[in-house]
């Protein structure tokens, strides 16, 4: 499986997002009205737009990115893994730094690809949309406009697990469990991120959670490729590559 992909050509990533504001009533009136319209598509009849505002973070138009973690496999025996995170309350700043990293990576690797779990439906388009909103140029690896299918360099471990079956969603937690890989959800899960960010103001805790997701995705892809795993003592977090 994936015989045409070299593990050291893959940048693994995960993002953490939150609603634009800590509560709906702090949004400007226009955005409040637009969220009301958007949330009518999924909220129950007994719920208000404010009741479901915690879900705003999953929509790029109403949320923002507070952390992007990336990881790279080191081609040695055994495999090593390097992690780096871009995090800030200033979304444009972290996106600018991430853009520099991804551009540097694609220049250094002719066959560079990105990999995330549910990346095609969430991480990749979310990053691209938030870059447009922040007035930034989308890096070539993320920009799919006008590309043929075989020119798109994006891998999605959830999509790969489907093997053509599009009926179900398989969470990262479930996939790691059935494959015998350490769960990244040992401390928190995605539903808790907004509260930890706005109420506890513990961004570092969110960063650690995001990095565990990235490591889990890398270990899953190696299993798909029938390659050895990444030992815990071969993982390092770095400030630069």
Explain this structure.
This protein is α/β, with parallel strands linked by helices. The protein has one domain (7-20, 62-237): Ribonuclease H-like superfamily/Ribonuclease H (Nucleotidyltransferase, domain 5). It contains seven helices and six strands; from the N terminus they run βαββαβαβααααβ. It has helices spanning 29-39, 91-108, 123-133, 157-162, 172-178, 193-200, 203-224; strands spanning 10-19, 63-74, 80-87, 113-116, 154-156, 235-237. It has a six-stranded mixed beta sheet, sandwiched between helices. The model has no long low-confidence stretch (mean pLDDT 92).
In a nutshell, what does this entry contain?
It is built from 7 helices and 6 strands; from the N terminus they run βαββαβαβααααβ.
Task: Write the topology of this structure.
Blueprint: E1 10-19, H1 29-39, E2 63-74, E3 80-87, H2 91-108, E4 113-116, H3 123-133, E5 154-156, H4 157-162, H5 172-178, H6 193-200, H7 203-224, E6 235-237
């Amino acid at each position: 499986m994936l015989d045409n992909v070299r593990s050291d050509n893959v940048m693994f990533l995960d993002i953490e997002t939150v609603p634009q504001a800590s509560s709906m009533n702090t949004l400007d009136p226009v955005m409040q009205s637009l969220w009301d319209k958007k949330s009518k598509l999924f909220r129950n009849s007994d719920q208000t737009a404010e009741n479901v505002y915690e879900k705003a973070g999953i929509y790029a138009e109403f949320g923002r990115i507070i952390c992007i973690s990336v990881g790279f496999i080191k081609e040695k025996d055994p495999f090593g893994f390097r992690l780096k995170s871009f995090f800030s309350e200033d979304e444009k700043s972290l996106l600018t730094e991430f853009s520099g990293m991804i551009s540097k990576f694609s220049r250094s690797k002719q066959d560079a690809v990105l990999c995330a779990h549910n990346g095609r439906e969430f991480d990749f388009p979310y990053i691209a949309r938030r870059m447009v909103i922040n007035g930034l140029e989308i890096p070539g690896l993320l920009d799919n406009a006008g590309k043929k299918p075989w020119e798109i360099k994006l891998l999605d471990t959830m999509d790969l697990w489907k093997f053509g079956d599009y009926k179900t969603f398989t969470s990262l937690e479930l996939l790691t469990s059935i494959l015998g890989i350490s769960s990244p959800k040992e401390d928190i899960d995605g539903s808790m991120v907004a509260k930890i960010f706005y109420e506890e103001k513990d961004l570092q805790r969110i960063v650690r959670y995001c990095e565990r997701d990235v490591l889990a995705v890398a270990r899953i892809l190696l299993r798909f490729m029938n390659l050895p795993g990444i030992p815990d003592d071969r993982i390092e977090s770095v400030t630069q590559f």
